[in-house]
Amino acid sequence: MRIVLPGGTGQVGALLRRACAARGDDVVVLSRRPERLEPGVRHAVWDGRTLGPWAAELEGADAVVNLAGRTVNCRYTDTNLRQMMDSRVDSTRVLGQAVAAAARPPATWLQMSTATIYADTRGPAHEEDGEIGGEEPHVPLYWEYSVRIARRWEQALEEADTPATRKVALRAAMVMTPDRGGVFDVLSTMARLGLGGPVAGGGQYVSWIHGDDVVRALDFLLEHPELSGPVNLAAPHPLTQAETMRVLRRAWGRPVGLPASRWMARAGALALRTDAELLLKSRRVVPGRLLGAGFAFAHPTWPDAAADLVARRRALPRP
Ligand SMILES: NC(=O)c1ccc[n+]([C@@H]2O[C@H](COP(=O)([O-])OP(=O)(O)OC[C@H]3O[C@@H](n4cnc5c(N)ncnc54)[C@H](OP(=O)(O)O)[C@@H]3O)[C@@H](O)[C@H]2O)c1
User: Fold this and answer.
1) What total number of domains does the chain contain?
2) Alpha carbon of 92 to ligand 1 centroid (Å)
3) By the 8 A CB rule, do 119 and 284 touch?
């Protein structure tokens, strides 16, 4: 396979690069700065906004998996929100132009989107009828902007005129990997410090997916040409925030977790230079299309996934 990974230098990119390189795929990463990646992974520079020589990398590729976008793990200031929007919409739009102009375009375009597109709800969100967010009266106004980013991101994909290329929007939940700096690392730090108790009552759902299942699901999507449009990328059995953290604390051998109120969560998020929406918004995403097509999750339940991730985290060499 020849695979192009725009934005493939980040957390999800690392997962895919390792998997592709291990089985001998030809992998090209598009990044804004030249970097040395794993042996066998090529690198091309783009700016994520304008067409350039990088577009030639798409010729004859089997797939493009677009991961580009400013991290959402930051304070939601006006500047950061604008960058979160522009980096996603612009990169998707210019990729669409490059695919449209290719003489031999990739057969498949897997485009990152996010489970944040769904409304804050404790009921299950399927692809066909899950309530899209932005109209909930009970949530802070600025949460609407995260949903708007997700909608415009998917709109840029829809608007790309690429009749020879199948397009899939990956509505991804939090990707759990043992690596340092990822969301599992942050939640684990809280659990190990005894801070990982219920937040704001803890009844909100936490959707997640194990990194191994991200790689396996993307392979599955490449092998199933009948699947296009939105696909939820989330483990099938999400738990409430209180349960999610209780299980994680147990996996780390820390039975006690202090509860936190909504304002404490906001203050904690401020200290971690991130935003409380990531802790407070309820996401109960159901991977209906993947399950319906016969995909089997390697880590469908959180107790199993958490135990696996803790064991792998413990095995990492000290920095
Ligand atoms: N990780 C998760 O839990 C999760 C869950 C749901 C959705 N997602 C989405 O999946 C995608 C990949 O996630 P990730 O965790 O791998 O993200 P990440 O670690 O932040 O990496 C994303 C990459 O995007 C590139 N980028 C950043 N700002 C950009 C800009 N202004 N223009 C163009 N490219 C830019 C960067 O590459 P260079 O600096 O090399 O150019 C960066 O390595 C993101 O869009 C994210 O929102 C992630």
Assistant:
1) 1
2) 12
3) no
